[in-house]
Write a structure and sequence with these properties.
Elements (H helix, E strand, L loop, with lengths): L7 H7 L6 H8 L5 H6 L6 H14 L3 H14 L4 H12 L15 H19 L7 E2 L2 E3 L6 E6 L4 E8 L2 E9 L2 E2 L16 E4 L4 E2 L10 E4 L5 H6 L7 E3 L11 E3 L3 E2 L2 H7 L9 E5 L4 E2 L5 H20 L2 H5 L2 E7 L2 E2 H13 L4 E12 L6 E12 L3 E13 L2 E7 L3
Parallel strand pairs: 3-13, 6-11, 10-12, 15-20
Antiparallel strand pairs: 1-14, 2-17, 3-4, 4-5, 7-13, 8-9, 9-10, 15-16, 17-18, 18-19, 19-20
Helix pairs in contact: 1-4, 4-5, 4-7, 5-6
Length: about 400
């Protein structure tokens, strides 16, 4: 039997605003158009492309095409609940017009979750980053770091950037689930995903985890130094997969973790190195040309170099002027820390400080704040050591100051 009933309401329910549809549809109508692909990064996920094409076919009232597409999708992933729901809607369209996604008798919250997933996935298919652009949060990545991860919580999207000699290329992106109450975590149990710059600490294998976490998991170092300074606490923020009986979860459904499908997590795992891979979680990605950040990068690097030089000079007053009055280091307040530095410098006849493996990140959720990560080699007449250090720099009254730091 032919599907006869128009279903444009289904499509426009999926989109966050119908007014956005015309421009996006013009781009999506020919997804392999050479001009379009030169402007934006093409979708890489066959699953998401097939889902988006199904929804676009419904919008164009090509329902017979749509049902074949969604059946192909279900064949690939029988446990994909959203695909099963759309398939049911299309079968129902043989008897009555479609008015929305989920024309079934089911709990409203579960239907709304699936509608949100459809909206998020379709919007990410239609709104692709421009080729050659990078998130402004990735100011500089040292060549020793193979890849970086950036999560856009507003779009439930995770992006992977491969680092080749300091130049970044977007090599993959995935749909993700975030905290059920959104982003900006501040306390234990608030159901939110933190915003910040974090690092993979280790890999947990699936056979050692409850099924809820999927094939494996990558814990993050939340709370980091800045979280602790701000009083943002909690634990157990991971990148992990989904329960084995479900292909994917709604956009907002975790306790704060970033959750991928098990298939996507398998792919993502190829780029993750514990202790090395940075994971930037932001409320919104601003995509910029890499060269647009050169001025900020150079200005910040000059501040870091001035700090290094003043430390070597053993002029403690000059050295301490780089630190804010509210500075803390490993939980120690500025006055106590500064007094200890003065005592230490009195025992020095010479100091040499070398910095290497320098990376810089614009810190999410903070105005004009940057995290600088580097390897520090310290030598003096009575002490030599090498350590990894992270500093948090902010502009206060037009002057750059360090507000937090880990390491000595």
């Amino acid at each position: 039997m032919q599907l006869k009933h128009a279903a444009t309401l289904l499509f426009f329910t999926v989109l966050s605003a119908a007014a956005q549809a015309d421009e996006k549809l013009a781009m999506a109508a020919s997804p392999f158009d050479a001009t379009a692909s030169a402007r934006t990064i093409a979708p890489r996920s066959h699953t998401e492309s097939l889902l988006a094409q199904t929804l676009l076919s419904i919008q164009q009232n090509r329902l017979d095409v749509a049902i074949k597409q969604v059946e192909n999708l279900i064949h690939l992933h029988p446990d994909f609940r959203l695909a099963q729901l759309i398939h049911g809607d299309l079968l129902l369209a043989r008897a009555q017009p479609l008015t929305t996604i989920g024309n079934v008798n089911a709990p409203a919250t579960k239907l709304n979750d699936l509608r949100d997933e459809a909206r998020v996935r379709l919007n990410s298919y239609l709104e692709r980053p421009t080729v050659g652009t990078v998130p402004e949060q990735l100011l500089q990545l040292d060549p020793s770091i193979p890849a970086a991860i950036v999560v856009d919580t507003s779009k439930s999207r995770l992006y992977v950037f491969k680092n080749q000699n300091g130049e970044l290329s977007n090599v993959a992106d995935f749909y993700v689930t975030i905290g059920r109450n959104g982003a900006e975590k501040t306390r234990e149990g608030d159901g939110r995903t933190p915003l910040g710059v974090y690092y993979i600490t280790r890999k947990l294998e699936g056979n050692k985890l409850p099924d809820l976490y999927g094939s494996f998991a990558f814990p993050l170092n939340f709370p980091n130094d800045w979280d602790q300074k701000q009083g943002n606490f909690g634990h157990g923020i991971w990148l992990h997969g989904t329960v084995s009986s479900t292909y994917s979860r709604p956009p907002k459904a975790s306790d704060g973790c970033v959750v991928l499908t098990n298939n996507d997590l398998d792919e993502l795992g190829k780029y993750l190195t514990p202790g090395v891979t940075p994971v930037v979680i932001t409320g919104h990605i601003k995509w910029v040309a890499p060269q647009s950040a050169e001025a900020d990068k150079d200005a910040l690097m000059r501040q870091v170099e001035a700090w290094r030089h003043d430390w070597e000079s053993r002029n403690t007053d000059h050295f301490l002027r780089h630190y804010a009055a509210n500075f803390t280091a490993n939980g120690t307040k500025f006055s106590d820390w500064a007094a200890a530095k003065r005592r230490t410098n009195q025992s020095k006849t010479w100091i040499n400080v070398d910095l290497s493996r320098i990376s810089m990140f614009e810190y999410p959720g903070q105005k004009r704040m940057y995290m600088v990560s580097f390897e520090q080699t310290y030598r003096s007449n009575n002490l030599n050591n090498v350590m990894h250090k992270r500093q948090y720099w902010v502009q206060q009254n037009g002057t750059w100051k360090i507000v937090a730091e880990n390491g000595a």
